[in-house]
Amino acid sequence: MVGGTAVFVSLVAPAGRDPVPAADSAPAFPSVNYAVAVDESASLTPADLRAEKAAAARIALGDVSSSSHVTVFGFAAAESDDQRAVDPVCPRTPLDAAGRETIGDCVGKLRGREEGEGTGTDFPSAIRQGVHDLTRGTDASEPRVLFLLTDGRMDVADSPKYGDPAHREAEGERQLTEALKDAAAQNVQIWPLGFGADPDQEQLDRIAAGGYRKGCVELPSATPKAHKVSGAKDIGTTLEKIFAAAHCLRHEEGPAPKRPPATLEIGISPLATVGSIVVDKGDPAVEITYVDPSGDEVPTSGTYKKSRFELAGGNGAVEALKIVDPLPGTWKVRAEAPEGHRSLPVAVSVLWQGELRGAITMDPPSPQAGEKVTVTMRLQTREGYEIKDPRDYAGLRVRSELTGDGFDPLALDLADDGEGADPGASDGSFTGTATIPRDADGELKVSATLTASGLSADTRSESGEVAPGQLPVRAVLDLRAANAHPGTEVAGNLDVSNTTDVPHTLRLSVADVKDGLLSVEPAEITLGPGESGTRKVTVAVAPAGAFGDRLGDGLRLAGTVTVVDTTDDDRTLVRSPLSVHVTPEPGIGERYWWAFASGAVLIALAAAAVAARRRLRRRRRDPSGLVLRLVSEDGTVLNEHTAGRGNGKQWYEFAVAEAHRSPRIERRAHGPYAVQRRREGGAVLRKQGGSRTPVPTHGQVPLTDTLSLALGEETRTTRRRPQTATAGSGSGSGSPTGGAGGGTRGGYDDNPYL
């Protein structure tokens, strides 16, 4: 990047050759120089300051580039000769493994100003400090970004350096203007974040607009702008979003924060080449473990499978696990904490960068002048897998043009809207059409560039040639999208004709996919003079081992089958997109379902009589309609709960919630208690551990140390009557959870018997 402007990487194939296949090279992570200015003025609450510290640590630890540098400083105002407006806390620090580990400690030095320490808000000094830190001894080709966190508006009324009291406000405005001009001249972007009740939105907008305006890519999302949040709880998440926009990262927010012990889930895109799972633990005593989408707990350093891991901040309130080549899918973050350290919620998010590749085709590849061609740009991961989820390429810009001899460049409109030539909306395939100009003669080239924030730009092109007339050898491939398992084949037909009096050799290959995943047979076809007909073509899918952990529940391969006439100067006859949905080999039950089905019919006939007898016995044991009553030691009925249908063996399972406060019965699968009817009348109570006790129709039996269980029978009155005790008690037939005696999940953590 130069001066904050994206340099588009061009991956263009030489004329007459297949496009460069999806690479398996190491990903590159653009670096950024950034500074974080944190308001320390007196208006800050302890919660505000804690949120500012966590936010600064989150973006520093979450940065995916080891060559980025960060500076952190606090600011307020200097209101006497022995005070200073700026408090440096983190000098310019590289975010390599060692630097990331120190960030949490130095960010912890941020503090709130007390009366007599200079409690105003000196924006000009903060901006000048940021510009100084970002330009001194830094590489001018790397983006320079200043994040300004504040809970107020500029206040220099008590700062002597701004002149006499009557003119300080005006002088402050003048110096702010000058500081912003200098920031713009030094290519320093400014992204303000205001929080609390008092930030001046107009002033924050002015600050954002006054700095350097070009972002990491030429997209609106990367242009500096001011943000405002209402409270401290939103500072960290919002600053991460701002940081992602400024750094051209993607940001994924996790689920609502939870108190430990808890498991939080977060998704990582298949486009991600590097990502950081950022965990705001709240309390340093919280311990975090990370589980990948295949269910394996991963290490926090070193290499595991094909991914590389590096943890930073593990001893602080914020930690981040950086992952190079992460396994895509849903990751689980498990939070555990000792007693006394479970009061603060744990939040999780992901910052990531990725590579989006494209595979371009022009059909036909050698058109005649005046003929219409269809151009398709299909989105892929860098390994050649298709991208189907539109969220992975949100904000994508596709630019395409057709160039050639004898005519001016034509802009092409490629769309993924399912209209016109595009086969389906939001399927990751952008399609458009163009008519080859009548004046076209000679070389043709169609190209397309993909640009999206957080994804490295990719330019693809295909070269062709205007056909002088009817081609001497023609080929049409019928190889449609297919489903396949690893190690199997996809079959198609190639219709060919040779109108010449000499043999022609055609070469077949698969491009635009990682080597070894797909291959085509035969690799060559020889056509005799005047020969025409149909040849069988098969595409072989690699064995399961070639996909590693990426196969999961299935993935899509996006290749391009190419047919070249080697006898006619390697003229391309066919460039046909190929989509193969690869799913794991089915289990034995899926493969031999017909045999199991036949056997099941015979077994079903033989078991019909037995089932009928069992149904009769089950009906006799069905607990539906039993009214379960919780009775206190003094005989008071504390709660009534109407049982619904039992499980397969007609046991109605339940638990006692809030046994020592407001006891109630709740239906609970695998609960510690269960009842079923007895043929003799009454019921049987089963307790955890297997013990069983008869419960007479008009009696009661001990349930806990202080509670007993008594029985009743549902009547029309009890069916209409709402349940007793507290809201959330087990419900009868009118339960909002559906089904008699459905109950709720409330009180689960308070049940001392679970």
TrEMBL record:
Protein name listed in UniProt: Lipoprotein
Coiled coil feature spans: none
Keyword Methyltransferase: no
The VWFA domain, residue ranges: 33-242
Source superkingdom: Bacteria
Region (Disordered): 413-438, 663-754
Biased segments, Gly residues type: 729-746
InterPro entries (UniProt xref): VWF_A, vWFA_dom_sf
Record field: transmembrane: 592-612
Keywords on record: Lipoprotein, Membrane, Transmembrane, Transmembrane helix
CDD domains per record: vWFA (cd00198)
